[in-house]
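Structure in, sequence out. Go:
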């Protein structure tokens, strides 16, 4: 039997009808901004038009202008922004950083309402995608835009250099974890393994109805159903037979839930359930890689499984965006450069983002993770497809309760 925790959102598109209407009305009138790059394969959508990297503005020149502005305002989903604030203010006295920590959904609502009312308070934002809504409802109408100076861009890994709607300062993922005391090696190599009797009642996940990022993983399976179809044949040696479902992605979800999937409130709950020292738990769980930073602190015995077919996960990137009509644009650019690590990748502002379970997509920055970014086996994050399909996948989950 599965226990569910309902989200305050009822489905995708994730914004309320009133806010969606405001987006539609304002999209034609929103000021367009250069610096929005095209997207392609290897982890991002293909729906944003290309633009060259922004000119490299010298930090010292930006600082002189930023001092006149006096401050920079950040809306952030990540607490990492407060760590970057401390080092930035020490490096650039006279420029204060104001950080407002809000969830991605709430941030979109807040920015849209403010901009539609003619209020421009934020200079930059740090946000995760929300089932494609950030790109579709924020980037495309010109409310936010990508800022990636050319002196930094040359060090950035694809797809985040030229093929993404924003610059990802760090990349996390939702993937499978196992107890290292129970298993000497990853016990799962194919997502379809979890639908077999061996794993009945032994799979945990954080509630996808409460987390767009967890729902994105399952939406990716439905969007990339041909991959799931092939993985099924690789596992069982025969073609899949659908049982009233639309495709192999939906069929996987149905069989996973029917195999006694245990749904917990959050990622931390999943890791604790499978990873308590001495428990030798035979279960596996789907959790966020960013929680690995706390695993060692709590003494949990867990490790990720990156070699899972057909793909281990889908990118869950922490994007940096400049905000249209930012009132402290120079201070915003200066802070963004600081968090990116500056041209040499050594600026202290990058340190909070280069953590266990979070990958910095720069070729000149050494990851603290044993597994390098370029070897992460992930599906493309197609924002347009996710935006179109996430509501349907959500409804499918609800019906399976």
């Amino acid at each position: 039997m599965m226990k569910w925790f309902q989200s305050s959102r009822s489905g995708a598109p994730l914004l309320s009808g009133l806010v969606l209407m405001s987006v539609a009305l304002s999209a034609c009138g929103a000021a367009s901004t250069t610096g929005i790059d095209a997207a392609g394969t290897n982890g991002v959508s293909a729906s944003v038009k290309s633009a060259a990297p922004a000119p490299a503005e010298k930090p010292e020149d930006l600082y002189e202008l930023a001092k006149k502005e006096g401050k920079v305002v950040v809306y952030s989903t990540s607490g990492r922004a407060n760590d970057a604030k401390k080092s930035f203010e020490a490096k650039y006295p006279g420029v204060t950083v104001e950080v407002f920590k809000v969830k991605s959904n709430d941030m979109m609502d807040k920015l849209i309402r403010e901009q539609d009312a003619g209020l421009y308070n934020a200079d930059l934002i740090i946000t995760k995608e929300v089932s494609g809504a950030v790109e579709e409802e924020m980037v495309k109408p010109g409310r936010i835009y990508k800022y990636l100076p050319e002196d930094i861009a040359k060090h950035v890994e694809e797809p985040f250099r030229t093929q993404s709607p924003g610059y990802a300062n760090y990349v996390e993922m939702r993937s499978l974890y196992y107890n290292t005391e129970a298993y000497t090696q990853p016990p799962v190599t194919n997502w379809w393994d979890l639908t077999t009797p061996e794993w009945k009642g032994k799979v945990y996940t954080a509630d996808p109805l409460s987390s767009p990022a967890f729902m994105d993983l399952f939406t990716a399976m439905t969007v990339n159903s041909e991959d799931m179809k092939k993985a099924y044949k690789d596992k069982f040696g025969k073609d899949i037979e659908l049982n009233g479902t639309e495709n192999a992605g939906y069929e996987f979800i149905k069989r996973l839930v029917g195999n006694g999937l245990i749904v917990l409130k959050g990622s931390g709950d999943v890791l604790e359930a499978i990873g308590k020292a001495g428990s030798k738990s035979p279960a596996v769980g789907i959790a966020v890689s960013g929680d690995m930073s706390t695993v060692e602190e709590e003494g949990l015995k867990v490790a990720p499984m990156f070699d899972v077919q057909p793909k281990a996960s889908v990118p869950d990137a922490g994007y940096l965006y400049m905000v249209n009509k930012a009132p402290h644009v120079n201070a915003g650019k200066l802070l963004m450069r600081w968090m990116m690590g500056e041209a040499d990748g050594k600026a202290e502002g990058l340190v909070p983002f280069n953590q266990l379970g979070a990958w910095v997509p720069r070729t000149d920055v050494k990851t603290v993770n044993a597994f390098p970014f370029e070897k992460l086996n992930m599906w493309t994050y197609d924002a347009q497809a996710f935006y179109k399909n996430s509501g349907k996948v959500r409804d499918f989950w609800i019906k399976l309760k």
